[in-house]
TrEMBL record:
<keyword id="KW-0547">Nucleotide-binding</keyword>
<dbReference type="InterPro" id="IPR006195">
    <property type="entry name" value="aa-tRNA-synth_II"/>
</dbReference>
<keyword id="KW-0067">ATP-binding</keyword>
<comment type="subunit">
    <text>Homodimer.</text>
</comment>
<dbReference type="InterPro" id="IPR044140">
    <property type="entry name" value="ProRS_anticodon_short"/>
</dbReference>
<keyword id="KW-0963">Cytoplasm</keyword>
<dbReference type="GO" id="GO:0016740">
    <property type="term" value="F:transferase activity"/>
</dbReference>
<feature type="domain" description="Aminoacyl-transfer RNA synthetases class-II family profile">
    <location>
        <begin position="41"/>
        <end position="469"/>
    </location>
</feature>
<dbReference type="GO" id="GO:0140096">
    <property type="term" value="F:catalytic activity, acting on a protein"/>
</dbReference>
<dbReference type="InterPro" id="IPR023717">
    <property type="entry name" value="Pro-tRNA-Synthase_IIa_type1"/>
</dbReference>
<dbReference type="GO" id="GO:0006433">
    <property type="term" value="P:prolyl-tRNA aminoacylation"/>
</dbReference>
<dbReference type="InterPro" id="IPR050062">
    <property type="entry name" value="Pro-tRNA_synthetase"/>
</dbReference>
<dbReference type="InterPro" id="IPR004500">
    <property type="entry name" value="Pro-tRNA-synth_IIa_bac-type"/>
</dbReference>
<dbReference type="InterPro" id="IPR045864">
    <property type="entry name" value="aa-tRNA-synth_II/BPL/LPL"/>
</dbReference>
<dbReference type="InterPro" id="IPR033730">
    <property type="entry name" value="ProRS_core_prok"/>
</dbReference>
<dbReference type="GO" id="GO:0004827">
    <property type="term" value="F:proline-tRNA ligase activity"/>
</dbReference>
<dbReference type="Pfam" id="PF00587">
    <property type="entry name" value="tRNA-synt_2b"/>
</dbReference>
C-alpha cells in the first residue's frame, strides 16, 4: 500500500499562489497538487487530480448507463472529409485544430464527435427496428482557444463526456432528450453542485429543436444566467427572450431635423450633450450577413443581441461590420450612423422597443451630425420588428411571472436536439415501417468532465484550501502521524492505516517527517472530508477527528473510531 503513504505519494503542494492563476479553482488545483501546466491551456493531471476525475466519471457512467446509453470510444483524430460532408470544416472557426499526416492527408483533432458517430451509425443501422440507440464516450477533446485561462475551465485539451441519440421520429427524440436531461440533473446533484438548467443557444453544434445548458452558479462564471424571481424560468442571457410589452412614448410628432453633435459618438456623450434620456436615442449596429449589409436598430438604453440577430436571419455567415466597412457602406463612422437616409441596399431590422418611439434621435450618416424627432416607419422603412436585444435585470419574465434577475454561471453540461442537421448532411438514413427511407433524428449531450472539477472547487473551498464533497473526494480520510519519531504515535498510525483500509476506507496516510504545522496546512489544502490525527494522546489510544467542512474536532478512542466514522459517513 506504499502508494497511499504521503511520503511517496506524488502530490507536490505549493505554499504561494502561482503567478497567472487568477481564480480559486486554478490556484488550488496547482497548490494542492492536482495538476501541472505543460503548455498554455494544456495540463498534466497528477494522482490526486486523476482520482477526482475517475470519481466524477464513475458517477457519469452510472447515470448514463441507467438512462439506457451504451459506452464506446471514438478516435480523437478525425478525417477532414467528414467535416467537409457536414459543412463544418470552415464554419467551426479557428478553434478547430488541423493537421496532416505523412501522406499529406488532412485531419482534425476532434472538439466534438457528431461527424464520426453519425458516419458509424449510418454504416451499420439501416432499419427502424434497430432504433432508438444512444451511444456515449468519455474522451479527450481539443479546441485551439485564442486565450486559454482559468486553468481547466478554458483549456485547449480537456476531458468530455459526449453522447448521441438516434431516433426514428421526433417523439423518440423528445423521450431521449428528457432521459438525458434527468440523467444530467442526477449527475450534478450527486456531485453536490448548486446548478441551474437554462435555455441556451446551440452555437457551433447546430440544431434548432431545443437546447439547455447546465450552469453551476459561481461568481467567476463566464456566462450570465437570466432567471425569474417569480418562477423557475432561466435562460442564458444570450437567448433570454424579452416580451413585447412596451408602452408607446407620448411625444409630439415633429418634423425630422438635423442637429450638430460634435464629438458625440456614444450614448453617454449624446445624453449628456443633448440633455435627453437614453430611451429617446436610436442605436444602430451594422452587420454583414452573407456578404450583404443589415442594420439593426434598438433603443439607446438597450444593447443589440448578436445571437438573436443570427438566429432570426438563419444565414450562413453573420458578423459585425468592421470599422472600415461601416464607413464605406454608411458614409460615416460608427456612432454617427442611423436608419434614416441609409443606402437602399441595406435591410433594416428593429427591436420591438423601437416602435414605441415617436421623437427619437439617431445618427445622420454624417460625421458630427444626428437627426432628431425621428419617427420609425414614417422616416425609414423597417423590414422586420422583433426581439433583437439583450435582456436586462428588471425586465418582465417571458413566462409572465416575476421579473428578470442575473447570476453568473460556469457551463458544465449542454443538451441539444439536433434533429436531422447531421443525418441529412452525412446520409444517415433508415427504412421506416413502410419501407421508405428517412433521415435519423438526432440528439447530442455533452458534459465537461475536467471543467466539473474546477466548478466543484469554486463552490467548495475556503481560505485554507479545498473542501471535497464526499461523492468525489480523492480519499475518504487523511490519517496524520504528527511525530513519527514517537514510537506510540507511529505504531498507532500504522495499525489504523491498515485497519481503516480493511474497513473499506480509502486513506491517505501522512507519515512524513515534517513539522505538525506543515502537515495540518497540507491537510487543509488537500481538503479531504475527515482528518484523523495520531498525536500526544496516542499512548492512551485517543485520536483527534476533524471535519474539514465545518472545522469541528472531537477526541475519539480507537475502540469507538469505526462506529463514529460510519455515523459521520451516513450524515455527510
Amino acid at each position: 500500500m506504499q502508494k497511499m503513504r504521503q511520503q511517496f505519494f506524488f502530490s507536490p503542494t505549493m505554499r504561494d499562489i502561482p503567478q497567472g492563476a487568477d481564480v480559486p479553482s486554478h490556484q488550488l488545483m496547482l497548490r494542492a497538487g492536482l495538476i501541472r501546466q505543460t503548455a498554455a491551456g494544456i495540463y498534466s493531471y497528477l494522482p490526486l487530480g486523476i482520482k477526482v476525475l475517475k470519481n466524477i466519471e464513475k458517477i457519469i457512467r452510472e447515470e448514463m448507463n441507467k438512462a439506457g446509453a451504451q459506452e464506446m470510444l471514438m478516435p480523437a483524430i478525425q478525417p477532414s472529409e467528414l467535416w467537409e460532408e457536414s459543412g463544418r470544416l470552415d464554419d467551426y472557426g479557428p478553434e478547430l485544430m488541423r493537421l496532416k499526416d505523412r501522406h499529406d492527408r488532412d485531419f482534425v483533432l476532434g472538439p466534438t464527435h457528431e461527424e464520426v458517430i453519425t458516419s458509424l451509425v449510418r454504416d451499420h443501422i439501416t432499419s427502424y427496428k434497430k432504433l432508438p440507440v444512444t451511444l456515449y464516450q468519455i474522451q479527450t477533446k481539443y479546441r485551439d482557444e485564442r486565450r486559454p485561462r482559468f486553468g481547466v475551465l478554458r483549456s485547449r485539451e480537456f476531458l468530455m463526456k459526449d453522447a448521441y441519440s438516434f431516433d426514428k421520429d421526433k417523439e423518440g427524440l423528445d423521450t431521449n432528450y428528457e432521459a438525458m436531461y434527468r440523467a444530467y440533473e442526477n449527475i450534478f446533484s450527486r456531485c453536490e453542485l448548486d446548478f441551474r438548467a437554462v435555455e441556451a443557444d446551440a452555437g457551433a453544434i447546430g440544431g434548432k429543436g431545443g437546447t439547455h445548458e447546465f450552469m453551476v452558479l459561481s461568481k467567476i462564471g463566464e456566462d450570465t444566467i437570466a432567471y425569474s424571481d417569480g418562477s423557475n424560468y432561466a435562460a442564458n442571457i444570450e437567448i433570454a427572450a424579452v416580451p413585447d410589452v412596451y408602452e408607446k412614448a407620448e411625444e409630439p410628432e415633429n418634423q425630422i431635423e438635423d442637429i450638430d453633435t460634435p464629438n458625440m459618438k456614444t450614448i453617454d456623450e449624446l445624453t449628456e450633450g443633448l440633455k435627453v434620456k437614453k430611451e429617446q436615442l436610436l442605436k444602430s449596429v451594422l452587420f454583414i450577413v452573407d456578404d450583404s449589409p443589415v442594420l439593426v436598430v434598438c433603443r439607446g438604453d438597450h444593447e443589440v443581441n448578436e445571437i438573436k440577430v443570427v438566429n432570426a436571419l438563419d444565414a450562413r455567415d453573420v458578423r459585425m461590420a468592421e470599422d472600415t466597412e461601416v464607413k464605406e457602406i454608411m458614409g460615416a463612422e460608427a456612432g454617427f450612423i442611423g436608419p434614416v437616409r441609409a443606402p437602399e441596399s441595406i435591410t433594416i431590422l428593429a427591436d420591438n422597443a423601437v416602435k414605441t418611439i415617436t421623437a427619437g434621435i439617431c445618427g445622420a450618416n454624417e460625421r458630427d451630425k444626428h437627426l432628431r424627432f425621428v419617427h420609425p416607419d414614417r422616416d425609414f422603412s423597417i423590414e422586420q420588428y422583433g426581439d433583437f436585444r439583450l435582456v436586462q435585470e428588471g425586465d418582465p419574465s417571458p413566462d409572465g411571472k416575476g421579473t428578470i434577475c442575473f447570476a453568473e454561471g460556469i457551463e458544465v453540461g449542454h443538451v441539444f436536439k439536433l434533429g436531422t442537421k447531421y443525418s441529412e448532411a452525412l446520409g444517415a438514413e433508415f427504412l421506416d415501417e413502410n419501407g421508405r427511407s428517412q433521415p435519423m433524428i438526432m440528439g447530442c449531450y455533452g458534459i465537461g468532465v475536467s471543467r466539473m472539477i474546477a466548478a466543484i472547487i469554486e463552490q467548495n473551498h475556503d481560505e485554507n484550501g479545498l473542501i471535497w464533497p464526499k461523492s468525489v473526494t480523492p480519499f475518504d480520510l487523511h490519517l496524520l502521524v504528527l511525530n513519527p519519531k514517537q514510537e506510540d504515535q507511529l505504531e498507532l498510525g500504522e495499525k489504523l492505516y491498515q485497519d481503516l483500509q480493511d474497513e473499506g476506507f480509502d486513506v491517505l496516510y501522512d507519515d512524513r517527517k515534517e513539522r505538525a504545522g506543515v502537515k495540518f496546512n497540507d491537510s487543509d489544502l488537500m481538503g479531504l472530508p475527515v482528518r484523523i490525527t495520531c498525536g500526544k494522546k496516542a499512548n492512551e489510544g485517543i485520536v483527534e477527528v476533524k471535519l474539514r467542512r465545518d472545522g469541528s474536532m472531537k477526541e475519539v478512542h480507537v475502540d469507538e473510531l469505526f462506529s463514529y466514522l460510519h455515523s459521520l459517513n451516513e450524515n455527510m
